[in-house]
Amino acid sequence: MIAPAAVPVLDLEQVWVRHPGERHLSDVLRGVSLRVHAGEIVGIQGPSGSGKSTLLRVCATLQRPVLGRVRIAGREVPRGWHRDGKVMPINQNATGALDPHWPIWRTITEPLQARHHSDRLTQAQRREIADEQLRRVGLDGLDLDARPGQLSGGQCQRVAILRALIAKPRLLVADEPTAALDVSVAAGVLHLLADAASHGIAIVIASHDRAALQVLCTRVAHLRDGRLVEHAGDRSEPLASR
Amino acid sequence: MTTPTAGPDGLVIENLSVRYPSGTHAVRGVSLHVAPGHTLALVGESGCGKSTVAMAVLGLLPATTRVEGTIRVAGHEVVGASEASLRRIRGLHVGLVAQDPMRSFDPLLPVGTSVSEAWRVHGRRPPRDGVATALGALGIADPRRRLRQRPHQWSGGMLQRAAIAAAGAHTPALTVADEPTSALDADLADTVLNALRATGAGVLLISHDLALVARHSDEVSVMYAGKIVEHGQAAKVLAAPRHPYTAALLAATPRPGTGLPAPLPGAPPNLALEPTGCAFAPRCPLADEDCAENQPPLHHDVACHRVNGQAA
To answer: Per CB distance under 8 Å, which residues of A are interface residues toward B?
Structure first.
């Protein structure tokens, strides 16, 4: 277990988000504060329409709050923030999140080709890396040239998570990553996320599967009336020393 | 049951086999029975044939599919029935609640119009205020106003209750519910299933959520590679599974206080190929040579050489 750094990876301070409602503006998030340190997994639960997805978009720096601060690794997210791979989102619908025309070796290794990764890799190198990653999650039988349409939902979700992890992000933001999966496959995804956290990645995950959040997370937060209420998850012990 | 044609049996399936033109042998000799007022859950991973059974019961498989065996819904034979008699059976004797309520309703029509279609398609008219009363009973507040709204103004849980009202329009002997709550929140899932069971029809519940099945079904049949591998009372099977596949499914289900769930190794087999031995053997921790060579029959409600071997 990596000791949590003093500076949280994600720091939301009094975040407000407002959506246009039927008659007037409604506050979806009403002063949400949340700190997530390296190696922590924080679960977000709440009924449909409680603002879970909005909160996760704010965490993933995909949406700006009307009020409040969002800091990633101590740095405030500036206007025009270019996403440099520090924060990676994972969606419920993995098949839709992958480029249907790309072979999976290309999808998995694409973040390594981003601007800040200076050394360009050859196709052979990228295939080798993708192969190694797939082996790691028990997908070694998969054809590197397969397109997402040829894979099952569970295989696509694992490919999406491999892609999210490959450039070593600081924060992973997962919105219902197991909702569309069989229990047998969902359990594998939970292990993959727990493994990422043990390597020091901070994770925020929303799910309506309370049992899954309880076994996976170090803390679980309930979103109600636009505010968060936290309680401990099953895996909270390693953080007690903090 | 007021309908005179409704027999004493909700659903009887005997030795059902379904083969798709692609060569996939999706269902391989399934027999099951749902008594009126009872809920039978059919569980298993994707690609085990659960939904094919559901589609066969509704007579909704493509005409090119080869279906053998017997499916009787309230005494009416579905296998080989003409399209005209299938149309009569559907709705009058068997209702359907599908997976995604947002796709079960015409987005351009008021919800009330879609629900009353369940009567009009059989040349009847819903009783005065019948739709609103049915929805009110299912916990929809202010149903008269709500029924004039379009589906996008309803939540998924409300639409699923409207689907239940439509499926129950003619008090059928059986409702087929194919993953009815996988698009819904956990709290809503319980509300929807309580509503479904309260209709009094027999329910064939297709689900991969074992926690949900434990709360809402009387009996459970576990399906693997087109066959039923374990059957019994839901509480009993899920508390003390006998087949290794049932045990593996339970171990993969997250339960607070028990650590991370254990994923199942491998994937369900390709159903286009006929297995020589037990279809689960390649993924089974208990498998030996016998399992690889001989298919285990369903014996005392379990199809497993190792379990039945120990019992003998």
So the answer is: 47-49, 138, 152-153, 179, 182-188, 190-191, 194, 208-212, 214-216, 234
pLDDT of residue B156: 82
First to last CA, chain A: 12
Separation CA A203–CA A197 (nearest Å):
7
Which distant-in-sequence residues (6+ apart) come within 8 Å of B156 by Cβ? A48, B101, B102, B183, B184, B188
DSSP per-residue codes, B48-73: SSHHHHHHHHTT-S-TTSEEEEEEEE
Length of chain A: 242
DSSP strands (E only) in chain B: 11-19, 25-34, 39-43, 66-73, 76-77, 94-97, 174-178, 202-207, 219-224, 227-233
Task: Kindly report the pTM of this predicted structure.
Answer: 0.85
Closest-CA residue to A130 (of A119, A116, A115, A145):
A145
E strands in B101-198: 174-178
What pLDDT, on a 0 to 100 scale, did the predictor assign at position A182? Answer: 84
- Torsional sign, CA B47, B53, B56, B60: negative
Over chain B (312 residues), what is each successive 10-residue block's mean pLDDT?
A: 51 96 93 94 91 94 94 94 93 90 91 93 88 88 92 87 91 92 79 87 92 93 96 95 95 91 87 91 91 91 85 44
For chain A, where are the E strands, in sequence order?
10-20, 25-36, 41-45, 67-72, 75-76, 87-90, 171-175, 202-206, 219-224, 227-232
Task: Tell me how far apart the alpha carbons of residues B111 and B114 are, in angstroms, rounded to a whole number.
Answer: 5
- ipTM of this complex > 0.85? no
| Cβ contact A160:A88 at 8 Å | no
Question: Rounded distance, CA A113 to CA A133, Å?
Answer: 16
Q: Distance from CA of residue B9 to its chain's centroid?
A: 17
Taking an 8 Å cut-off on Cβ atoms, the answer to whether B260 and A191 are in contact is yes
Closest CA to A210 of A172, A171, A174, A179: A179
Q: Does B282 touch chain A (CB under 8 A)?
A: no
Query: What pLDDT does A121 receive?
Result: 86
Query: Beta strand B174-178 with B202-207: parallel, antiparallel or unpaired?
Result: parallel
